[in-house]
Structures are given as C-alpha cells and as structure tokens.
Amino acid sequence: MQFRIKLLIPAMTFAGALVFGSAATAQQSGTAEEAKALLARAAAAVKADKASALARFDEPRGDFKDRDLYVFCFDRRYGTILAGQPATKGKDVRSFKDPSGKAFGQEMFANVNDGGSITVDYMFPKPNSIVPVDKESFIEGLGDIACGVGYYRVSAQAPGDLSRKAREQHACAVIMGLQPGSLYNTCIWSLDKTLFELDRAQLISTEQTACARLGLTPGTPSFAACVANGPGF
Questions:
Q1: Do the Cβ atoms of 136 and 123 come closer than 8 Å?
Q2: Per-residue pLDDT tens over the stretch 30-63
Q3: Is residue 216, in this structure, part of any structural domain at all?
Q4: CB-based contacts of 140: which residues, under 8 Å, 6+ apart?
Q5: What is the pLDDT of residues 66-99, one digit of tens each?
Q6: CA–CA dist 103, 173 (Å, integer)
Q7: Is 149:71 a contact under the CB 8 Å cutoff?
Q8: Number of structural domains found in the chain
Q9: pTM, two decimal places
C-alpha cells in the first residue's frame, strides 16, 4: 500500500501536466536550423572537453538551452543517457519507444556514426511536459558518445490531437519506466481517475464563473441551481 501511494503522487503530477501541458505549445519553439546549429556547438564543446561539456548541457540556464531546444547524449557502448531531460538520464536509450511503438532510441543507437549526423523522427514530450508531440532529432557520433538536438514540429501534431489514453500510456511506460503489469495498470488507473476529477473540477469552475457573470450570488440557492443545471437553464 505504501508503494502504491508513492506511485500515485507522481501520477497525479503527470495528470496535471496532461491537462495543462497544452499551454506549453504557446511558447515559441526552436527550428530545424537552430537545432542543427546547437548540435554543432555541442559537438565542438565535446571535442574540446567532454566532461565539462556534458555538465554544461544540463545547466538549467546554461548556454546549451534555447527555449525547447536542448542537447541529449548517450554512451555508444552501453546506451546510457548522459545528458538530456532529467527523467531520461541514466536510462538505456535503446529502451525508448514513442506512443506509436516506434523504437526511436534503438534507431539512434544503431545508426549513429562519426563524421556526420543522422535524422530520426518520433514523438516525445517537450521540456516540462509529458505530452508527446512530433519531434525530429539530429544525432552525431562523437567518439564513445553520441549527442543530438531535436526540434518539435508542433504545427504538425498538437498535444490535444493525441488521445488521453495514449498520453497516459506514454507517461506510465516512458516517463515512469513501468513495464506492463500490476504497477503499470495502477499508474494508468490513477491517471485516468485523477484526470476525470480534474475535468470535473474544471467544468464546475467554468459553470461557477458563468453563473457569477449572470449576477447570481455564490452560496445562494439560485447560484447552486445554476451551477448544477448550467447557466443555460
């Protein structure tokens, strides 16, 4: 029971991100050319001092973060993610799949090479979100590690276009790293339940605002009836 409670806490946090994460798309996003330019700078930094570069890549306000553009790196022998979004660090890049089932991490690991970059298309959340959107990444081999930078093609796939079920599955499988089984099912259940409650609370808040605008006073029977039946009644 204690472990289940610990699981529900981050699941509720993810639920909030699923509901409100679409607001993040309003921010300006980086472009393909800007992603390539950032990768070129990252590659130069790795060649100059790999350890220092990896540390700099993860600095929250460092010069390798630009809006939703960031550098990710992984070990080319073991697949361990060395830099990137916090939830992915230390994991095996080969284990990553997007909601469609595409094993984009394995594709990166198997195909990256020195002396040039490869391109991989997949779906992945923007920073500070768990809502997967279309992303195209450029990955370059740099000796015993590989680094990449991707940009989000939000105009091609808005977060709201994904089913809630697909976003729940991505949150539990990719972000929390759960395999199909009892814990995975608990994660899906808790997310779905919390999202239902958040949707209901949001609807009530909307109805309350609408009823107040009609001049009804909160706490009165007429206000309660308006909220219960809708301001149109």
A1: no
A2: 999 999 999 999 999 999 999 999 999 999 889 9
A3: no
A4: 39, 43, 112, 114, 116, 117, 118, 146, 147, 148
A5: 999 999 999 999 999 999 988 899 999 999 999 8
A6: 13
A7: yes
A8: 1
A9: 0.60
Token pair belonging to 191: 């997310």
- Please give the radius of gyration of the chain, using alpha carbons only, rounded to the nearest integer: 21
For residue 28, give the CATH number of its domain. 3.30.450.20
Per residue in 97-109, pLDDT (tens digit) is: 998 899 999 999 9
State how far the Cα of 223 lies from the Cα of 203, in Å rounded to an integer. 15
Alpha carbons 193 and 195: distance in angstroms, whole number: 5
Structure tokens at 104: 């984009």
- Which residue(s) pair with 120 in the sheet? 137
The identity of residue 34, as a single letter, is: E
| Token duo for residue 82 | 């060395």
Token pair of 176 as six digits: 């929390």
Task: Take residue 98 and report the two structure tokens written for it.
Answer: 């997007």
Domain of residue 99, residue span: 22-161
Q: In angstroms, what CA-CA distances link 49 with 44, 55, 231? A: 9, 10, 64
- Cα–Cα dist 63/224, whole Å: 53
40 within domain boundaries: yes
How many CA within 13 A on the CB side of residue 98? 18
